[in-house]
Fold this protein.
Amino acid sequence: MSSRTPLIAGNWKMNKTIAEAEEFISGLLPHVFAADGVDIGICPPVTALQAMVDSARGSAVRVYAQNMHQADSGAFTGEVSAAMLTELEIQGVVLGHSERRELFGETDKALALKVPKALEAGLEPILCVGEAEEERERGDTERKLRHQIQEGLAKVADDRLADVVIAYEPIWAIGTGLTATPEQAQEACAFVRALVAQRSDDAAQRLRVLYGGSMKPDNAAELLALPDVDGGLVGGASLDPASFAAIVEAAGA
């Protein structure tokens, strides 16, 4: 039995106004106030971050940002820095989500700077990795994961590796309704852990690996029971408090 505490993080993407976020959190908190043995995070859009920090204060729910720039300040219109997030009492940040990579040109080079910057600021980074459908069909899944992880963690000291969360998200299963089979999810997450073990076996055993690819209440328990899956980065199902709470419950079972 793993000693790693599972993490269920809900990535809202570009959804929810402040009013809608407040409605969500008021609906979620009664469901999770007694949650035990599981860490809970929500990743609202930047406009709702402060409101969610205030509304979740004193609860088990942590608030994460969806992106962060690697520089402390500068001429980077539309970006936010680590200091701006910590000033809001944000506890973590999603980095390298496939949508950031594919739609907005996020690079492994930038992520190699973002991950240690987040750690330095006291933020828990969730580094996203994963392959596209054509890469899986070509048998390139392991090559893609190896490159993303080696680049993304290149500037992280060995003694900080376990403080990074890695989310394996098969791109072909995001927003499509498709889900990796338990065998596919376990194989990929175990491979992610093995890559980290090449630098530090101790860190690999402590580091949390999440599955992110259409996790829903009806498949969460099976996915979360896998030996190398330590939680989920939940997309669509995280927009409804009851569905998200059901996944949290499955993780704490």
Strands lie at 7-11, 39-43, 61-65, 92-95, 124-129, 165-168, 208-211, 231-234. The mean pLDDT is 95. Residues 127 and 166 are 5 Å apart (CA to CA).
